Records
---
Amino acid sequence: MYRVSQLAAKFGLSRSTLLYYDQEGLLSPSGRSGAGYRLYSERDLERLAAIVSFRKAGLSIEETRVLLASGEGEQSVLRKRLAVIGDQIRALQAQQHLLARMLRVQSGGELPESVDKETWVEMLRAAGMDDEAMETWHAEFERRAPQAHHSFLLSLGIGEQEAQAIRAWSAAGGKEGAVREG
């Protein structure tokens, strides 16, 4: 059996974190010592290892609670978190490209040229994507992360008006009648 301070040290957590997990119903001690100290079993230790893994993966307390309650884990929670992380990565990449462009403009163009619209299309074609595949890509990007899609388009040097037209077309699923410019 482990006391709260021993368990906390084993996982590099604070004592207050374990008390918080107890308060939230994620990790309750298996028992108490004669002096009233919380005592944790090997099974509690395994549960804490799972909690720590879920939290490192960015899952919220509520998502962690759902996974622990399901026994084997609920794939929908994990898939949802994976999609959120993917969206965040794409948004950060778009921000990175935009900042690089801003720096290049401010420094008089001394930074190397970032990927522009034409280069991006050439790379997609070189990867084997035809027009239909690129249209599907835009539609999926718009569906999953509209703001990141917008930022990405701007990072390619596409103007605001054209970016809005591409997004409207993408949101319509590439259907006829929608404006298409890229």
Note: The chain has two domains: 2-69, 82-171.
---
Amino acid sequence: MQTLFRSEQGGHEQVVLCQDRRSGLKAVIAIHSTALGPALGGTRFHAYADHSLPEEAATLDALNLARGMSYKNAMAGLEHGGGKAVIIGDPDVLKSEELLLAYGRFISSLGGRYVTACDVGTYVQDMDVVARECRWTTGRSPENGGAGDSSVLTSFGVFQGMRASAQRLWGAPTLRGRTVGVAGVGKVGRLLVDLLIEDGAEVVVTDVRGESVDRVRASHPQVTVAASTEALIRTEGLDVYAPCALGGALDDATVPVLTAKAVCGAANNQLAHPGVEKDLADRGILYAPDYVVNAGGVIQVADELNGFDFARAKEKATKIYDTTLEIFERAAGDGVPPAVAADRIAEQRMAAARG
């Protein structure tokens, strides 16, 4: 496999390409940094069917996601660096016990430099299988000593970031009476909708999967459904836009037509390229950095490594509110977008750990 490593994706400590012909496993494990401790990040299982070179697309995805995990873990105050893995293929077709066990053996061969968990396309039950071959696995089921679904605290953390955004914009930490658009109502987005409705927000949702929208509507019939993400971001009166699907949600096409006054969502790598954060700031749109507000899940799985205590993990995830406010204040003081302010704080913490 030949992969183009771009300069903006550099600085990684290690990239491992994995293949097990018997099970059909092809995977990429990227370790960005271990300055703060063993790299921690989930395993994505994705086909990249829309790319002519899926192996290259997966590698670039893993590199970007691993770097994001370094910054996320640093901002969350965890003693972990950043890593990420991608298993290439359609999980509905390729996923098997044999493949997951083979994958676990590859992680184990790294000797603890990388600790894995769930991500898009992988679930708690998958981590239980991986753990049979690898003790550096978290995000496991409660019956196997794990914390269970990390979506619970991921959505809770995003909600805390959204409360901080509301405080910054409107002077009160609540979404009551505000209109929030949620793009992607799968594992995390659906739980975020629950929190928003409970807080008194008006919610508009969209998802490429009709069944996901149907589940939300079954619980909350008052929710409005947009025909597409393109329609959602143009919704009149939208106060907050929450991208909760895959990355790259904020790009040169979406930012100019975005009606929301703030962006705060669960998706990783929401900024499609450098410079989008400035475009948002120039339009007066407050951006809550994705890796800060969606850190609840990694806080949960990191806590599991020490014997999971939900109350302890939730208390730490609650601090995402304070961290987000700190970033907004730092950004205003330095005259930079919040994404730049967050990067600076994370980089300072990693540099201090390196000594």
Note: The longest strand covers residues 25-33.
